[in-house]
Amino acid sequence: MAATFGVCGRALAPLLEKVEQRSGGKWRAPDLPLALALIEGFASGSDAPGDHRGIRERLMGEIPDEHPWSTYAQDVLICVDTGLVAASVEGRPKPIVIQYALEPLAAFMQNRDADMIRVYGMNHWSIQITEDPVMANALEFLRNLIGEVSQAASVDSATYSRLVGDAGILRPGTQVPRREPRMPPTEFLGQVRKTQN
Length: 197
Known about the structure:
Layout: H1 2-22, H2 32-43, H3 53-61, H4 70-86, H5 99-112, H6 114-120, H7 122-128, H8 133-150, H9 157-166, H10 185-196
Helix pairs in contact: 1-2, 1-4, 1-9, 2-4, 3-4, 4-5, 6-7
């Protein structure tokens, strides 16, 4: 599990740099490089589990709560924190936390699809988003990542670097074409009936 969360945390780390820039340097996460190195060391098998409570407390205590991008920072730091838990003697993290690796992308896409949400509602969007190629690719990446790293006792540095590169798919910020909203079946049937009359 440390490799999964470490890969996601490292791939999403550039979001923290953006938060730092947009905060005018008021918010920083100076312990992030060390945390990511600790996770990678454990995931690669070169380091034994350690006591990471101190760095975890510092990282989670640094989450900005007023900055507009604070949710991105929270999502990244939760992934890193979970990687540290997996690389520690403290215990095993809950696998459900992997959802935070998708949150920045989901927030970006929700903003992108604001018009669709206004027309069809949040429930409709929540169902449709999993069919969007961007989210579908991210979900497929996570399935493949978990499958690949869960089969190995450790992950060598070349594989780890490749996975971090592949995990860039989780990071929002590239131009994502707006997709055409799919018409709900009831609305489609209503239009068909109108054309038949």
